[in-house]
């Protein structure tokens, strides 16, 4: 696969006005008269978790041991680029191990997932992040522990990049995730490399078993500099929002990595991102996370937001004590656990109603919204069946499906809905799609094969595709109630 060239956004001083020409922070919009309660909620979250400060700074890196341990902050970035924060969100720190998922993503983009899986496994280790261990195939157990992360680092430009070139590619890649140019904390790098004896041991072990191909010393130096990339909690929340947004940076609009790569990265973050506390994290927080020994913790709620916390003191597993605590609190109070999703099957139907013309013609209008996946499609088809069923109270002549508020349609949804509409047409119903962007069916709406047996006769999915519903909103149409029979499949 081709090496990615990254576009870098403006500096943080100008970045806040690059999203569609408007400030990112909704509280900063001209004319806004109220502050969002979300900002107040984060301020309360930070305040409540500032009352004590257990744990200890990472003592094995002198630069981190000297960091002010009283600092604490939390930041959230939505997938459309809005930022909410409280506390120390503009304080710079080194990214440390939170760089691992992003470099893993860059390696997958460069080489492809199948190739990367031949070099780094994806199984939880159940061990400390700096354990000297490989799996039965002599591979690092996953890319979130140091052995796997150093291997992943070495895969970037393997065989063609110098140490400096590899690092610069990684720095630019992480900058693309953040939406601005990121620098390096040279003090952190020098402090960590001077005491990186265990990482040197891991690297020589990896070279001995062929997991890395280059010089072990060069790999440790490059990996340590990767961990010294400097950023803020706001930057990290932006990086998380890029992953939550399917790899597209929400402010710059740059597609940094593919959605398929994001799926792999978030899967590994979920099972391995918090080391030997990963099980507790999944049960109590419930979405992908990654911690760093500088005290930062990254969280990603796919399709929704990226979150970052910063508090330097760590627990025995190397995770920020107050950072993890804030994640547990917000996940519980805001019901963010991925096992407690909203019911998309019901929310996809925005509204549906029955119209009757002066001539007695009756049509059903079904308005859809949000993302249309398999379970949502099942709900839509069931409503179409119910509203067009033959019964005494009403004889339906036509169907209008309005998809202007649909954000995303999965391929399986397009295939199933195309065939459902074709079958309705085959029974004599006129089908009109309100879909100016042709988002619902795409090429399938033009008679292309769906992979499902089609109804006999005309294979087009709709009689007509229009831009709005104005023709059905005139005085010629009267809204009338559905009969009880038309609601039976709800």
UniProtKB/TrEMBL annotation:
SUPFAM superfamilies: beta-lactamase/transpeptidase-like, SpoIIaa-like. It catalyses: L-glutamine + H2O = L-glutamate + NH4(+). Its EC number is 3.5.1.2. Keywords: Hydrolase. Residues 353-434 form the STAS domain. Residues 1-29 are annotated as: Disordered. Belongs to the glutaminase family. Homotetramer. This is glutaminase. It comes from Vanrija albida.
